[in-house]
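Supplementary Note 3. Input sequence used for the single-chain structure prediction.
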Amino acid sequence: MHKFANDIIPEIDKFSEKIREELTEEMKEKIRSIPDDKRTEILINVYAKCGAITIFNKLEQICVYIEADLADESLLYTPMHGLICEFIDEYEVLLKRLKQKNVPYRNLTAVVRKWKVNEKNDEIDKKIRQLEKSRPEL
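The predicted structure, written as discrete structure tokens, is reproduced below.
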């Protein structure tokens, strides 16, 4: 948890700032008119240049501990799952490219897959609780 709070979160903040500098609103507007394959290549290069690969590597390290049961996943899930899943979703195009280049990120992929299922189950449980509260009494 210490590594996540003191290393990865600040790294993601720096990365986000670099992305905002590289992909200004004007640049985003220009990119929208480019064919999908070229737009994808541009985004992959910008994400890589701004440091996404370093973040993927650090997240993979944490996920190795989770998958090897060396870290208590139940303690890490609540504070980490939202940020990690959001980051992976946002920069998935680069992650997919890296996987094509035989950089598997197996542990990161496994943890994110599990956590997305947990998120969905949490949403369903919340809806069930809301429906139960709204059920009329006999």
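The chain is about 85% helix and 0% strand. The two ends are 48 Å apart (CA to CA).
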